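Retro notes, structure queue

What went well: the backlog is down to a handful. What didn't: a couple of records were mislabeled last round, so from now on we paste the full input next to the output in the thread. Example, using GTP cyclohydrolase 1 from Taibaiella chishuiensis:
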Amino acid sequence: MAYKKEDHYDEHITNPLTTHYKSVIELLGEDADREGLQKTPERVAKAMQYLTQGYQMNAADILNSAKFKEPYSEMVIVKDIELYSLCEHHMLPFIGKAHIAYIPNGYITGLSKIARVVDCFARRLQVQERLTHQILDAIQEALAPLGVAVVIEAKHMCMMMRGVQKQNSVTTTSAFSGQFEHNETRSEFLRLIAADLV
Ligand SMILES: Nc1nc2c(ncn2[C@@H]2O[C@H](COP(=O)(O)OP(=O)(O)OP(=O)(O)O)[C@@H](O)[C@H]2O)c(=O)[nH]1
Ligand SMILES: [Zn+2]
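Corresponding output:
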């Protein structure tokens, strides 16, 4: 994402966020003025804007920016797209992979645009279930394909670093539309994302 280079941070957001994070550091019992922490509030303010930059993105614009007329009508699968999101309950990361497929109906999109749509919705405060559906809906609406499939596997830091403290649980969510609602097509997709082809 080329977006949010240093000079793209909005000072109207960065400045008050910096003030708030200084208070957070102090409330946590630290000396916000000690050398190592002096620039931390501003760094965190920028990091949080980076991690939530999906709010400034539009999935339809992303997909339509490279939409091509093409008669290919088999499944297109982009798998193992890494994703970094923040759970909306604790604002802690959840990290994983998305596997996405669609069956074109006259139009294809640039492959990178599929990954960008993942970022568009992942870089927000999220729950994994909604993230899964938002990706599906965006592709369905922009390309009107014969079907879309989205599977996301993720590990939630709020279940690992705190709370229930389970280090190995992985959450899988899925959403299917159109032809992927039929068992045969869905099974082909699931088989192909499980396969080690490259
Ligand atoms: N369904 C869903 N739940 C999530 C997701 N991310 C975090 N959670 C859960 O959100 C729930 C919030 O539950 P609460 O009981 O309100 O919060 P809590 O007291 O911090 O809960 P614990 O994590 O169990 O300590 C927890 O069960 C989290 O595991 C997500 O993407 N989807
Ligand atoms: Zn959480």
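Agreed that this is the format going forward. Reviewer comment attached to the example: The helical segments are 11-27, 40-51, 59-64, 111-122, 128-143, 157-160, 183-194.
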